[in-house]
Write a structure and sequence with these properties.
Shape: globular
Number of helices: 4
Strand content: 25-35%
CATH superfamily of the largest domain: ApbE-like domains
Radius of gyration: 19 Å
CATH topology of the largest domain: T-fold
Structural class: alpha+beta
CATH class of the largest domain: Alpha Beta
């Protein structure tokens, strides 16, 4: 689940940054004592944030790109931009109609096993935000064991499930940021139902076993293009 207080744990592992390592379990357990969001005190009147334990640190990485993408779109619309693509790497925000005859956009969903820009499938969509969280961009391999950068705030270790990626389709990019984390944490067992229950959200789930599932609103607009993958139903 989304936890803005997870900074000390992210810094400890440093996956995707210089100094990436497999920490000692004792160090992980120590950091777990610092990542409880209930220890963040907000004062609306003073507009202040207070961290009640020494060593706590906020990490906004999971929502920063979504917030920025939405702000760029607002700026574009204010300046009269009619159509375009805001691409922040993992966050795609479509603005206006495309140049295709049907005015829809064609957006590839990355194949986790292939090099960048090789899709497992393609979504045909009107202007939307598409945010993807996956295990294939930032990871660490030690003694043949792979550790990705999305952490379970209860265990201090990378989330363990059968997913390779989740893509959330929404109106706002920041919503996609928040819900990709939530859906990935729930895995294939509960993730699709979670997103189905959220008004205005759709999702594409890709598993490590080359299975792809989409929520009901994407069934007529998503198609596979990689023969290594196959569609499964979750409802």
């Amino acid at each position: 689940m989304f936890n803005v207080a997870i900074g000390p744990l992210v810094k400890l592992w440093a996956i995707g940054f210089d100094g990436a390592n497999l920490p000692k379990d004792a160090d992980i357990q120590e950091r777990l004592q610092l990542i409880d969001p209930d220890n963040i005190e907000l004062n609306d009147e003073r507009q202040t944030v207070f961290l009640t334990k020494k060593g706590m640190e906020l990490d906004l990485g999971a929502i920063a790109k979504g917030y920025i993408a939405d702000a760029i779109k607002t700026l574009w619309l204010q300046r009269g931009v009619k159509t375009g693509i805001i691409d922040l790497g993992g966050n795609i925000l479509l603005v206006g109609p495309s140049t295709h005859d049907d005015q829809k956009w064609r957006v590839g969903i990355q194949s986790p096993d292939e090099k960048r820009d090789v899709p497992a499938g393609v979504l045909n969509t009107a202007e939307k935000s598409l945010v993807t969280s996956g295990i294939y961009e930032r990871f660490l391999v030690i003694d043949g064991q792979e550790y990705h950068h999305m952490f379970d705030s209860h265990t201090g270790y990378p989330i363990k499930n059968d997913l390779a990626s989740v893509t959330i389709v929404s109106d706002r990019s920041i919503d996609g940021d928040i819900w990709t984390t939530q859906a990935f944490y729930q895995g294939m067992e509960k993730g699709p139902a979670l997103i189905e229950a959220q008004p205005g959200l759709e999702a594409v789930f890709v598993t490590r076993n080359h299975e792809v599932a989409v929520t009901s609103g994407l069934e007529d607009t998503f198609r596979l293009v990689d023969s290594e993958y196959h569609m499964i139903s979750t409802h």
